[in-house]
Amino acid sequence: MPVITLTIDEALVSARVGQTVLEACRDEGISIPTLCHLDGISARGGCRLCLVEVAGSNRLLPACTTLAAEGMQVSTRSDRIDRYRRMILELSFAERNHQCAVCVSNQNCELQALAAELGMEQVRYDYLDPDLSMDLSHERFGIDHNRCVLCLRCVRVCDEVEGAHTWDVKARGIESQVITDLNQPWGESLSCTSCGKCVDACPTGALFTRGATVAEMHKDAGFLRRILDGREKRQWRR
Amino acid sequence: MQESSPNKSRPRLATVWLGGCSGCHMSFLDLDEAIIDLLQEVDLVYGPLVDTKEYPEQVDICLVEGAVTNLDNLKLIRQIRRSTRLVLSFGDCALTGNVTSMRNRIPVEDLLTAVYHEASSPIGAEAVEAVPALLPRVLPVHQVVRVDAVLPGCPPDVDRIAATLSALLDGQTVKLEPRMRTFG
Amino acid sequence: MNHASLEIAAEDELRRQQDLRLRIFLCYSTPCVAAGADRVRKVLDELITEHTLAAELEIVATGCMGPCSRGPLLRLRHANGSESLYEQVEPEQARALLLEALDEPSSEGGTAQALALDMPFFARQTRIVLSNNSEIDPENLDHALARGSYGALSKVLQDMTPADVCAEITRSGLRGRGGGGYPAGVKWELVRKSPAERKYVVANGDEGDPGAYMDRTIMESDPHRLLESMAIAGYAVGAEQGYLYVRGEYPLAAARLVKAIKAAERRGLLGSRVLGSNFNFRVDLRVGAGAFVCGEETALMVSIMGRRGQPVPRPPYPAQSGLWGMPTLINNVETFANVAPIIAKGADWFASFGTEKSKGTKVFALCGEVVNSGLIEVPMGISLRDIVFDVGGGLPEEGRFKAAQTGGPSGGCIPADHLDTPVDYESLQQLGSIMGSGGLIVMNDRSCMPDVAKFFVEFCRDESCGKCVPCRVGTLEMYQIMERITKGSANMHDLELLEDLCDLVQETSLCGLGMTAPNPVHNTLQYFRDEYLAHIRDKHCPAGVCQLDHVPVLDMPEHASHLIIDREEL
């Protein structure tokens, strides 16, 4: 397999041709924060947390969609990047109603963990306090739009792995909201196979198993790699 | 608990309870015997655990539990800021609004009507009069006054409180490790 | 139709026109129709039928003539070549004009106001892109042929290799007119050299900047120019399929393009074996559904492919991987409109207009506080002063020039101190604005700059697609702060937050919409910071536009005072 050499945070590393900067970093044990990214589904580049500096580019580039290239010089950390990452988290927290204390995914939430990890302590912007609903019409699962960060992992995992394409998005901008089928109640969806992949893929408490109460939702985003390895490489593990 | 005798060398500590559930103060009490050690080091000059009516002058450290939800909170927090060297947002309500702010999507008038007139056992107009005027929106403390340090958690557990207080008393910047600074 | 019959058709049509006693050109573009051009046309049609004059004269319902605020516009051209132009023509005035031209003067109807054809509005313009606009009926292919349309296509098919065509475009110095200013020839060459089984050509007609209507006018007034240029591009890069992406708000443009495509296909100018050659080129129309972001090239292509119109990160660039993963040439409508003339008259001719780095002309939609508002085409490098005070005729009611806004929601305001700046890509960028697609709004001192900036921030907030966090939430938070500033409840801390947010949204957004959304704020803060400070510190709007009555009763010096609404008991 062709190999390329690049510099990440001043260390010379090698990567396979076709790998993204994010994959190359993670292979080297360099952690880059991500929220919309999920190993096993297509990259989206929407959360902007994985932005890195690449020498020669006057813009910050998302590590999840940028291919590693020979001779590339990447910086994954800087004061500027750290500050922007915290600000992006501030905006994410301000956008909807993320009261961690009363969330099913409390202490099992990627957004919550990112805030702690990146040192996002206070939101300086107006909390927008949108008036959003929950859909509890499905017999096994529920969605609370108050906790949704619009990463669209549910949309992608449902489309690309389950092949159902139950989830999609309505409206645009700040009005964007994930929907099931053509904006029908989830419980009435004809396409949903009730596989639950969306629930495990969801980084926050937006998608949950019904009956779960505060801090009871344990997400398992790693399930995706396991089933894909099983499907594609015939490697089964638990 | 009595206010300790004034001692110039000992930092003056206050705790206040704004719009919150007092859970942060409960967690504070969970310091158990460490509280006794703490009181050797500080003068506790104001708070729900102290019988003082007015917020005193020249407070060194104030732990603020709860969000700014009404006019009384607003007046108090401004006075706290004027009279206090280090203001600490103590717990998620102070930091983010948290549960207290879940009323923000409901207009104040509708909220009062729902709680005091349409509830299963209506309380009546006189009760509404007794409630301090609610602000149109609940605000985290740092969106009202400058805050010097934060302590997240709902409530922050004892380890976090201990680590934060010891840093503050040592005159150091509060820098909790990531696992100790999660919300929730 | 082959190369020879194309020439014959053009000559036949020219001869027919020259034999007419009188040609009546009536501007039939959207602004003039809105002003009553259709009523004028009806009266003239009746008169012609009445006097059985159809063999001697014709009415040409043309595309845009330019001075849009003066419509309906009517131009008469006699067989001897003499011409006269009239503005704000009423139906009865048109009737009188026609009778007079036919030597049957009538006292009824009154006289229409004539416009001097050598007035600076016309004299200072150089029309390359708009050269056919006021000469042809956009729905009449023969009119276009008589003006030389498809001649350039015929030329490249007969005499030039694809590499020659790309080289010619490169040599001309043509740059992208959609706003980016990327050298068109370089892009063409990239697509030409990308190996692939299929390639595509896309014309971006999703013009969405407030106040801008250059592309609409080109599509409505001279659709064959666009089709011919796309076919030339297809030949140059090796594509057999073109897509025209027109925003849904332009139904007339879409309808005319459909007609033009059909007419060109019928005559063998598009489709299989174009002009009898081995080159095939089909053009299909795609109509947008009202999202500004679809003017962003990656979102536009996603929309053509039938998916939700949201941008995708670049690289890869469309030239490498565009529609269905294939190399795709995407240019703005106005960029394409320059191609046929460049091929027909040569790169050197084109490069003789403009400045060293910005060649040719630029079409602007000149509007706002200016006497002659309308669509203009001026050589690159002309000063802003000449545009506003010569072409535009200055400000009405002796208003004082304050700023000119260029580049729409991605642009900025250029203050009076910089009126002598040459209008080209680099100079405008140096001033913190951009050329953009060509909106040019003139403002007098009754415009409040924070209020203007707020308008554009609101626009971007509403048009954000919602894919990336900084643009989706950041533009909204920016708007909230702008709202506080213009309502009088902001403090200095808000200004700090705003500037911080502008940096974030600019540097971390996924696509051009987000990256440029803070420009109007950045730029007005650069030149008109004192106005912001007047709003924040003195609760005073110098221009007298803003209602600064949102002052909280409680005087809170720090943070958040804006959130306390007035209440009696406070």
TrEMBL record, chain A:
Q: Which UniProt keywords apply?
A: 2Fe-2S, 4Fe-4S, Iron, Iron-sulfur, Membrane, Metal-binding, NAD, Translocase
Which ranges carry the 4Fe-4S His(Cys)3-ligated-type domain? 80-119
Q: Which GO terms describe its cellular component?
A: membrane
Matches recorded under CDD domains? fer2
Q: Which cofactor does it need?
A: [2Fe-2S] cluster; [4Fe-4S] cluster
What the entry lists under SUPFAM superfamilies is as follows: 2Fe-2S ferredoxin-like, 4Fe-4S ferredoxins
**A Pfam family it matches:** Fer4_Nqo3
The answer to whether the entry has keyword Nucleus is no
Q: Where in the cell is it found?
A: Membrane
User: MF terms per GO, please?
Assistant: 2 iron, 2 sulfur cluster binding; 4 iron, 4 sulfur cluster binding; metal ion binding; oxidoreductase activity
Chain ranges of the 4Fe-4S ferredoxin-type domain: 139-170, 183-212
Domain of life per record: Bacteria
Q: Which residues form the 2Fe-2S ferredoxin-type domain?
A: 2-80
Which InterPro entries does the UniProt record give? 2Fe-2S_ferredoxin-like_sf, 2Fe-2S_ferredoxin-type, 4Fe4S_Fe-S-bd, 4Fe4S_Fe_S_CS, NAD-red_Hydgase_HoxS_gsu, NADH_UbQ_OxRdtase_ferredoxin, NADH_UbQ_OxRdtase_Gsu_4Fe4S-bd, PSI_iron-sulfur_center
Q: Which family does it belong to?
A: Belongs to the complex I 75 kDa subunit family.
Q: State the NCBIfam families in the record.
A: PRK07569.1
Q: What is the protein name given in its UniProt record?
A: Bidirectional [NiFe] hydrogenase diaphorase subunit
Q: Which organism is it from?
A: Desulfurispira natronophila
Question: Lineage of the native species?
Answer: Bacteria, Pseudomonadati, Chrysiogenota, Chrysiogenia, Chrysiogenales
UniProtKB/TrEMBL annotation, chain B:
EC assignment: the record states 1.12.1.2
Keyword tags: Oxidoreductase
A GO molecular-function annotation: hydrogen dehydrogenase activity
Q: Where is the NADH:ubiquinone oxidoreductase-like 20kDa subunit domain?
A: 21-168
> Is Oxidoreductase there in the keyword field?
yes
Give the top-level enzyme category: oxidoreductase
User: Cross-referenced InterPro entries, in alphabetical order?
Assistant: Hydrogenase_assoc-protein, NADH_UbQ_OxRdtase-like_20kDa, NiFe_Hase_small_N_sf
Keyword Oxidoreductase in record: yes
Q: What is this protein called?
A: NAD-reducing hydrogenase small subunit
What organism, scientifically named, is this protein from?
A: Desulfurispira natronophila
- Taxonomic classification: Bacteria, Pseudomonadati, Chrysiogenota, Chrysiogenia, Chrysiogenales
TrEMBL record, chain C:
Domain named NADH-ubiquinone oxidoreductase 51kDa subunit iron-sulphur binding: residues = 450-495
Record keywords, A-Z: 4Fe-4S, Iron, Iron-sulfur, Metal-binding
List, alphabetically, the Pfam families matched.
Answer: 2Fe-2S_thioredx (PF01257), Complex1_51K (PF01512), NADH_4Fe-4S (PF10589)
**Keyword Cytoplasm annotated:** no
Q: Which domain of life is it from?
A: Bacteria
Instruction: State any single GO MF term.
Output: 4 iron, 4 sulfur cluster binding
Which SUPFAM superfamilies does the entry link to?
Nqo1 FMN-binding domain-like (SSF142019), Nqo1 middle domain-like (SSF142984), Nqo1C-terminal domain-like (SSF140490), Thioredoxin-like (SSF52833)
Q: Which InterPro entries match?
A: NADH-UbQ_OxRdtase_51kDa_CS, Nuo51_FMN-bd, Nuo51_FMN-bd_sf, Nuop51_4Fe4S-bd, Nuop51_4Fe4S-bd_sf, Thioredoxin-like_sf
Instruction: Give the family, as the similarity comment puts it.
Output: Belongs to the complex I 51 kDa subunit family.
Protein name in the entry: Bidirectional [NiFe] hydrogenase diaphorase subunit
Record the organism. Answer: Desulfurispira natronophila
